[in-house]
Write a structure and sequence with these properties.
heterodimer, A: four-stranded antiparallel β-sheet, 11 strands, 0% helix, 53% strand, B: five-stranded antiparallel β-sheet
Chain lengths: 114, 114
């Protein structure tokens, strides 16, 4: 079974802090994704990566950056946290080569910025 | 504009009934379609995928795909209260891409009452 692990389930940070959200997958997947989920807005893609050191912007990359130094780890960075970044953050991974590859999600990190 | 649309509901059915969830998508060339279930406060979990026109059955779940009309549906037979959740439709809209990005609808909230 694919396991995608997000380092924190709940996180509370202050405005202006630099925040790191970590995600690790154990199935040697090439693709990794960061989404945020807000009521009424659904899942919105922030960034994704299809290989080590590669990254692609999703639909809402502003205020975020990512790092993929190792294949199994994909980090989301909030450079200067703001209250409008309070959200549920979901990491996912999938096999490359796939139009037919489903995403496997981590348990999510609920971030509150005060 | 790449879009996946779902009726947000809520959809409410009695226990034992058939629940029908629908999804339309913007790109006629899309090849792969996924249904995820998300319980409140949890992350999405894959329940079905379909690639070819027609029906695909898995236990009480049936996915139906009509590429010409650009819709995919999920039928849940003999609905149970434990099926109460939000159901997310996801489509690979990037024709020819192997990057594996999925586009998500906003989800349909289903309630099954005893």
């Amino acid at each position: 079974d694919v396991k995608v692990t997000q380092s924190s389930r709940y996180l509370v940070k202050r405005t202006g802090e630099k925040v790191f959200l970590e995600c690790v997958q154990d199935m040697d997947h090439e693709n990794m994704f960061w989404y945020r989920q807000d009521p009424g807005l659904g899942l919105r893609l922030i960034y994704f990566s299809y290989d080590v050191k590669m990254k692609e912007k999703g639909d809402i990359p502003e205020g975020y950056s990512v790092s993929r130094e190792k294949k199994e780890r994909f980090s989301l960075i909030l450079e200067s946290a703001s209250t409008n970044q309070t959200s549920m953050y979901l990491c996912a991974s999938s096999i490359r080569g796939g139009a037919n590859s489903p995403l496997h999600f981590g348990n999510g990190t609920r971030l509150t910025v005060t | 504009q790449k879009e996946v649309e779902q009726n947000s509901g809520p959809l409410s059915v009695p226990e034992g009934a058939i629940a029908s969830l629908n999804c339309t998508y913007s790109d006629r060339g899309s090849q792969s379609f996924f249904w995820y279930r998300q319980y409140s406060g949890k992350s999405p979990e894959l329940i079905m995928f379909i690639y070819s026109n027609g029906d695909k059955e898995d236990g009480r779940f049936t996915a139906q795909l009509n590429k010409a009309s650009q819709y995919v549906s999920l039928l849940i037979r003999d609905s149970q209260p434990s099926d109460s959740a939000t159901y997310l439709c996801a489509v690979n809209l990037d024709r020819g891409s192997t990057l594996g990005r999925l586009y998500f609808g906003r989800g349909t909230q289903l309630t099954v009452w005893p």
